[in-house]
Design goal:
The protein has 376 residues and is α/β, with parallel strands linked by helices. It folds into two domains: 3-106 and 357-374, Enolase-like, N-terminal domain (Enolase-like, domain 1), CATH 3.30.390; 110-349, TIM Barrel (Alpha-Beta Barrel). It contains 14 helices and 13 strands. Strands 4, 5, 6, 7, 8, 9, 10, 11 and 12 form a nine-stranded mixed β-sheet that branches. Strands 3-2-1-13 form a four-stranded antiparallel β-sheet.
């Protein structure tokens, strides 16, 4: 099998309501998905997406004429390209889609099997008034989720603590609650003037322990290795989580060596593709830590990370972006025939079709396509 063509396509769907996530300086008013398509001489086409769509066309050009099964070689070359052109890892996801389709098996089975379902936590994204976040939390639990994540990103973290207290009271003690500070990185021009320092992070984290928070995510800058390790050493029951936008396994290795996190959240579309993420999961679990991937890019990125989670030995939760009414699977999966949902017990079931198992809707592709780039 040889790769014959690579295309990058942009799709955009206007949203009924603007979405104001804590990590974006501007509201999101449309759902956007870049898709890389890799075509072969045997009629199999692989798709990938997620991450940051920077120079995928230039990165993918070197694949034309190559065998898609030469994954280790491709990952090695993509790592070199990533140094110059950004993060090309959705290209590697598309290669896995081809391999799975050629083998007639879903990707997670090719990675080692694991489970055909993973329990999900509802990952909210906005800092709204307490009443609105409490109502969303109650809806989330009523729909079957057994865990949810709220954002601490107000000017004064004690205002968010009041929201946490109200959410805990509303959902009860049997629901796991995660907290995300979103202080690991920033998108310009957001200057994050109320970013936490170490003392603030310690105070906030200790206060969260009173509400049995399952984990605290990104309380400090992603590269403040010593600060993260000191924060973790000050906690009793609260887990620390991070690693969602790190660039490679070397950074995860540093976290492990310094004792920064209890929960590791690499995203395969940012950190090195499915191949690298599978190796990171094994490394994290060998250290007795928790692997729970980040997934907040788009529907294809979510499914790619879902395969990584299902192939790992023990994954307590997969992130499920959901913040009703402003962000739902209808926005995330707007190109799919049907959006991915959870079952009554809060599990996401793995697609059983070959490759990623994604079924795109051709009518939606035609309706929402904005641009296309052919590499050759």
């Amino acid at each position: 099998m040889k790769i014959t063509d690579v295309r990058v396509r942009l799709f955009e769907m206007p949203m009924e309501r603007p979405f104001h996530p804590t990590w974006e300086p501007f509201p999101i008013v449309s759902a956007r998905t870049h898709i890389v398509e890799i075509h072969t001489d045997e009629g199999i086409t692989g798709i990938g997406s997620g991450g940051v769509p920077v120079r995928w066309d230039a990165t993918a050009r070197m694949l034309v004429g190559q065998d898609p099964f030469d994954l280790e070689k491709h990952v090695w070359n993509l790592r070199s390209m990533a140094f110059f052109v950004g993060r090309p890892w959705p290209v590697e996801v598309a290669l896995w889609d081809i391999i799975g389709k050629a083998a007639g098996q879903p990707v997670y089975k090719l990675l080692g099997g694991g489970s055909s379902k993973v329990r999900a936590y509802a990952s909210t994204g906005e800092c709204r008034p307490t009443d609105a976040r409490v109502e969303a939390a109650k809806q989330i639990v009523d729909e079957g989720f057994r865990a949810l994540k709220i954002r601490f990103h107000s000017e004064d973290w004690r205002d968010d603590l009041k929201t946490l207290a109200a959410v805990r009271k509303a959902v009860g003690d049997d629901i796991d609650i995660m907290v995300d500070g979103n202080w690991g990185w920033r998108i310009p021009p957001d200057e994050q003037r109320h970013r936490w320092d170490l003392r603030t992070a310690i105070a906030a984290a200790k206060a969260m322990e009173d509400y049995n928070v399952y984990w605290l995510e990104e309380p400090l800058d992603a590269y403040d290795y010593d600060g993260l390790a000191e924060l973790r050493s000050n906690l009793t029951t609260l887990r620390l989580a991070g690693g969602e936008l790190n660039r490679g396994p070397e950074e995860i290795k540093t976290y492990l060596e310094k004792g920064c996190f209890d929960v590791y959240q690499p995203d395969c579309t940012f950190i090195g593709g499915i191949s690298t993420t599978r190796k990171i999961a094994a490394m994290v679990q060998a250290h007795g830590k928790v692997f729970s991937p980040h997934t907040w890019t788009n529907g294809i990125g979510f499914v790619a990370n879902l395969h990584c989670a299902a192939a790992a030995r023990i994954v307590p939760y997969i992130e499920f972006p959901y913040d009703p009414p402003n962000w739902t699977p209808a926005q995330r999966d707007f190109l799919f025939r049907e959006p991915i949902t959870i079952d009554d017990e809060g599990y996401v079931h793995l697609p059983q079709g070959p490759g990623l198992g994604i079924e795109l809707d051709e009518d939606k592709l035609a309706k929402y396509e904005k641009s296309r780039t052919d590499v050759i």
